[in-house]
Design a protein that fits this description.
alpha+beta; 7 helices; single chain; 3-stranded antiparallel β-sheet; 3 domains
Length: 284
Amino acid sequence: MKTLNIVLSVAGGFLVFVALICLAGSVYQVNAGERAILLTWGSPAPVAISEGLHFKTPIAQHVVLMDIRTQKYEADASAASSDLQVVSTKVAVNFHLSSEAISDLYRTVGTDYGTKLIQPAVQEVVKATTAKYTAEELITKREIVKAGIDDALRLRLAPYGITLETTSITNFDFSAQFNAAIESKVTAMQNSLTEENNLKVVQFLAQQKVAEAGGNAKAIMLKADADAYALKVYNEQLEKSNKLIEYKMIEKWNGVLPMYMLGGGQSILMLPTTLATTNSTTTQ
């Protein structure tokens, strides 16, 4: 009897233990930013389960959690430009999974979608895009190249429920020969700009000298004109002064002609210039 009780106790404890395990295994939680794929004997449910506390059938059902928040995937790619320069680049892809398509993504691809989908898509898109540009344009038109990669990659990933947010070209690397050629070209351009600036300085100094010489010549001409004008005014004023003096002399003449005595008892009559001129005219 005692042995039977012991057996029953052990069996009861075991059943309770199994019940607890089954109860614990029947409850699962989906956190914020996640979706759950409920598998029944390995077959995924058609609709993903959202956040919260949920129940499942122990043993028969299993849960796979999928992250729908923004994720980052970096992929290395190698391609050739339109001028046949080998280009190595690293592309960082920011994306998120569409909650409506997660179940299909898991059914067709699984959880390793980065390696199976994103990596080959980046390789193909980078090759197709870089082939449209020369190696130099890949540097000078970086934003245009990035936009082209964005558009093409978005179209490639959308059918799988992967929504592309943006891409970043973190690096463009070329062959050593091309890098040396670019460096030489940049150096030549810098030297050309330096020579052009030096030429502009020389031209400016030459223009200054020409302007200075022109200013001096103009100043000399102006001074000569001023001196000529001053001389003209002086002569006019002098002529006016002489006429005024003669007029005053006639105005103050008392009618007596001045007489000067010379040696030998001879005398000479002196007439004012104006009066003499007048008398001469009258006589004629």
